[in-house]
Amino acid sequence: MSLRYRAINWNRQKRIYDSVLGLSVLAHLAFFVGLGSWIHPYATVETLLIRGLGTAGLLLLHVILSIGPLCRLDRRFLPLLYNRRHLGVTMFLLGLAHGIFALIQFHGFGNLNPIVSLLVSNTRYNSLAQFPFQQLGALALLILFLMAATSHDFWLRNLTPAVWKRLHMAVYVAYGLLIAHVVLGVLQSETSPLVAALLAVGIVTVIGLHLAAAFRERRVDTASLASRDGFVEVCPVESIRENRAQVVSAGGERIAVFRYGGRVSALSNVCAHQNGPLGEGKIIDGCVTCPWHGYQYLPDCGASPPPFHEKVATYQVKVVDGRVFVNPHANLPGTPVEPGRIESALKPEDRDEFYVGYEPDAPPELAKRTIRIIAGLCAATLSVSLVLVFAQQRFAPAAFEFQQTKEFEGLIEERPVPSLLVRRPGATGAVSALSRYPLVLPGKYGASPSVQGFNGTPVHLQGTLIYRAEQTMIELIPNSIRALPLLPDQVASQTAPDNDLGVFTIVGEIVDTKCYFGVMNPGNGKVHKDCAVRCISGGIPPALLVRSQDGESTVLLLVAADGRQLNGEILDKVGEPVKIQGRLARNGNTLRLNAEPRSIRRF
User: Fold this and answer.
1) In a domain, 233, yes or no
2) How far is CA 164 from CA 6, 158, 309, in A?
3) Which helix (H) or strand (E) segment is 462 a member of?
4) Is 237 within the bounds of a domain?
């Protein structure tokens, strides 16, 4: 116990634990980003980092939730408990980094504040398949923030242990929200069953350990005790080890009965610090010492030795014919009680490897065992990391030549979407000799304001290429457009008529062209829905992504029936399967679907 608050009670063991924790987190991120970039060359670093941080936090949360029941089932896991707060704060920081990167990636650089965008981009609360999973993750992160911010003993003391404990039990609410976040998000996009299988194993492990610990603890609470003159029989005195306790349940409470120096005393089993199990502790220097954090109490009165002020309830106890009896009615915390006397000879003092986390060194055998446990957990975690890296769905061959500015010359086309028409090398004549490159601005903005007044004008401009397969787009450098002398053959090509292919009803997914063509990978699906909403609302041209039965994909530029660009009127149907009836046309290398917004139906 300590008289003053300290930021961290460092000792050799905590330094070892935290070093192993830090190295494990770095190894996981290295696997995800480094090895992931090698296995998936078309994956963006941002995507791999978001996934790496998220999986690291979720894996660590499973470890944290497993430590408690493991300690109830086997005391050899108890040393892991001393560092659980460090694990919790680290897990929150990983989740915070994951959330910040995701918020910037999916909601930043657009026409709404990122926090507002998070709340309004997807409001499909009436659909399980399209339920807004990102909000679930944000709510879980808020709970974890409250827990991390109040993890220090200062808050434990000022909130009171009961309130603090209830607040930190909210970790199970956060866990449920994060499982829903993953199930309604990633699992709807990843096709490998390994990802779902690993998540199922984690859930079953956490629930199974808690149930096993609960059934074991239930035996103590349901054990029938004989009664005599208002006292209940606990056990033969010889069954209690010297300086240790026997825990019984009586009067609706757990009571720890300690044997020490020819005497027997009974205290509440609940430590006043963090509700730790005093009955699993040991009498050290004449005080009952909690196995969780080392808080101490005098066994005959339940009060902490001066200058400390913590107190626990005491119970009347007596020894009759070599058997221990306890009155189940608790005295007020700190009430002195005459210990029961033992007439039999004293047992030698117990020499087991009792250890609490504030001590500088664990007993050698316990330290070795703990290292083996931690090494096993690290190996298992890194194995899971490897599986997750390989289990990711293959990324499409797409690229964004970030910060690689190039020079372009061609003809500006304002409608249906801002584009640059460029003559193919060696080509002559008609529109088939031209390539059409849609234009966008940096961030989540379309290029309409920048090309206004340049329609049909040959220009020189600067930009960055975005491409996927045969689809290419240019991210325009603002204010880089410069008019060139008019080229008549280009004007003729630009005004060539569409090749009308007829009216069709087509099923597909509405995506934003900038992300799908290469800025983000994957740039479609539910995980990208919120980002696509921001991009399309900012003026980036929408498209209908159509997949054939053999997996081949086709992109149809989506515009209104009158040829104007569609934006705000289709936002509620972005990123999910839709059925659209419209007129299909081809112009050069561009397929275009002209349709009215009211013809778009969820499929």
Assistant:
1) no
2) 19, 9, 19
3) strand 458-468
4) no
Tokens matching residue 129 = 């398949």
pLDDT (tens digit per residue) in 27-63:
999 989 999 999 999 999 999 999 999 999 999 999 9
Which structure tokens are listed for 563? 């040829």
What domain range includes position 252?
A: 242-341
Supply the pTM of this predicted model: 0.88
Q: Closest by alpha carbon to 511, among 537, 542, 540?
A: 542
| Residue range 268-285, pLDDT digits in tens | 999 988 888 999 899 998
Answer yes or no: do 46 and 127 share one domain. yes
> Which one, of 510, 603, 514, lies nearest residue 559 by Cα?
510
Beta-bridge partners for 265: 258
For residues 197 and 330, state if they share a domain.
no
From residue 341, how far is each of 7, 263, 276, 320, 393 by CA, in Å?
A: 43, 5, 27, 9, 70
CA 437, CA 474: separation in Å to the nearest integer? 6
Strands 419-423 and 434-441: antiparallel
Contacts of 306 (CB under 8 A, 6+ apart): none
b/e 195-219 (16+ beta carbons within 10 angstroms → b): beebbeebeeebeebbeebeeebee
Count: domains in the chain? 3
Task: Give me the CATH number covering residue 264.
Answer: 2.102.10.10
Q: Work out the number of other CB atoms within 10 angstroms of the CB of residue 3.
A: 6
Please report where in the chains the tokens 């069709």 appear, as a residue. Answer: 504
Does residue 349 belong to any structural domain of this protein?
no
One domain for residues 38 and 177: yes
Q: Residues 122, 260: one domain?
A: no
